[in-house]
Amino acid sequence: MKLKFLLFCLIATFMGCKNSKDQSKKEEETKEDVVEVSKNNPVIRHIRTADPSAHIWNDGKVWMYTSRDMEYATFYDSMDGYRAFSSIDMVNWTDHGEVLHSKDIPWGASGWMWAPTAIYKNNKYYLLYPHSVKGSKDDMRCGVAVSDVPEGPFKDLGWIEGVEGQWLDPCVFEDDDGKVYLYWGVREPKVARLKDNLLELAEAPRTIEYGSDNFFEASYMHKRNGVYYFSYNAGLGGFYGMADSPYGPFEYKGGINPKQRQDHHSIINYKGQDYFFYHWQNWKGGSKFSRNTAIEYLYYNEDGTIQEINATQEGVKNVQL
């Protein structure tokens, strides 16, 4: 009887230790899950996305249009199929699926669908996008597509004459007076006003003076308190200048996101907070050809200059609804 009692105690002790270890393991796994969830960057994880073009339309949501990277891509020619996402809290994003694919563009090659931009005009939603005619970075055009709803699908309308050449990375910007400007270019930034149909230039293109010589690609324009901010990718990060005209000349101010390679960004103010959208290369086996969209808070100094941004895993928190 005494032997049985001792055996029972040993078994009970073993089971208690095992249960304790199992519980500790579960708690540790739960802790890891909580840590992972608290790291909100990148915000899109189920597919690779890049070049986020963020916008506030008239439905109170944040809309984001992205290019589509492939998992094991070795160059950008495989990029295909723009996607639309929306959110009301900046953390949880609804994927509305593919809104335009190269197969829907009769004048273009397969793939080669690079960084898009978007605008709401004439009671419709427009995507302006760079796309290759024959399958080369040297024969890109600025295509235009339209939809009645922000989630698409979008229908191609052709390209803008006078905007062609190497990869373009267009940015479309509407000023307070309703005039619309297109920014584009590689190594030499260009700007021109667009006609209201968004399919024609209203003037000859101008070269942008921005106070430096480090422009590479990814022109972006936004306006705050009457000041125009021209920003771009210098190849090794994002930089910017400020002016009192959409044409410039811009006073060079230095880095906005200078430590992030291939910075291709957009900027919005949503519910009183400014946000900076960009993409990562280094998430779960990513590369410069397989990227993921991320978001950071953006802050201005009293003189209107922008505080330097650092990429974080934490990203942004839920907007208080």
TrEMBL record:
One of its GO terms (biological process) is xylan catabolic process. One of its GO terms (molecular function) is hydrolase activity, hydrolyzing O-glycosyl compounds. PROSITE patterns: PROKAR_LIPOPROTEIN (PS51257). InterPro entries: Glyco_hydro_43, Glyco_hydro_beta-prop_sf, Glycosyl_Hydrlase_43_Enz. Keywords: Carbohydrate metabolism, Glycosidase, Hydrolase, Polysaccharide degradation, Xylan degradation. The record marks D169 as: Important for catalytic activity, responsible for pKa modulation of the active site Glu and correct orientation of both the proton donor and substrate. Belongs to the glycosyl hydrolase 43 family. This is Family 43 glycosylhydrolase. It comes from Seonamhaeicola sediminis. The lineage of its organism: Bacteria, Pseudomonadati, Bacteroidota, Flavobacteriia, Flavobacteriales.
